[in-house]
Design a protein that fits this description.
Elements: H1 12-37, H2 43-151, H3 158-167
Length: about 170
């Protein structure tokens, strides 16, 4: 099966078929009307039949259009109610979601603040522990060095020697 569409998507074959169908339908209507008018019956009988046909056709058309109108009104009314219901549901859901988001933001903000405070406290404790450990280590090293210095003979410099001799 070949596709008869051009590069813009226009279907020439489908368009030709539509025109052919419309022409055929119009030919049937015109032929039928001419057949009624030219039938070998009396003029007033033909006119009466055409009048009855037109009246009957008009009544049927009125019934169909009234039915269609009622269905359209019912559908439109239903759609309107459905639209209002959907709108109310969406706005309710949106406000609930906004409230939930606000609560969640407050909890997250509080958690972040608590985490920052804990981090600062831990940092302070760490600094204190490092200072304490450093002080202990320095004290240990100084206490280890003190006996070692006494055992070593003192080296005297010339300046110290002269000061010591001056004191004696």
């Amino acid at each position: 099966m070949t596709d008869n569409r051009d590069n813009r998507g226009y279907d020439y074959a489908g368009d030709a078929f539509r025109w052919l169908s419309a022409g055929f339908g119009l030919g049937l209507l015109v032929g039928g009307a001419l057949g009624l008018l030219l039938a070998p019956k009396a003029g007033h009988e033909t006119r009466e039949r055409l009048k009855e046909f037109a009246t009957d056709f008009g009544e049927r058309a009125k019934v169909v259009t009234d039915d269609f109108s009622d269905r359209a009104k019912t559908a439109a009314s239903g759609l309107g109610e459905q639209a209002v219901s959907t709108y109310q549901s969406v706005t309710g859901s949106a406000s609930t979601a906004a409230e939930d988001l606000s609560k969640t933001a407050k909890v997250v903000s509080s958690s972040i603040s608590d985490g920052i405070a804990m981090f600062k406290d831990a940092g302070t404790k760490f600094q204190d522990a490092v200072k304490e450990g450093y002080t202990k280590k320095v004290d240990e090293l100084e206490s280890d060095e003190a006996p070692a210095e006494e055992e070593k003979p003192k080296k005297r410099t010339r300046k110290k020697k002269t000061e010591e001799e001056a004191e004696e």
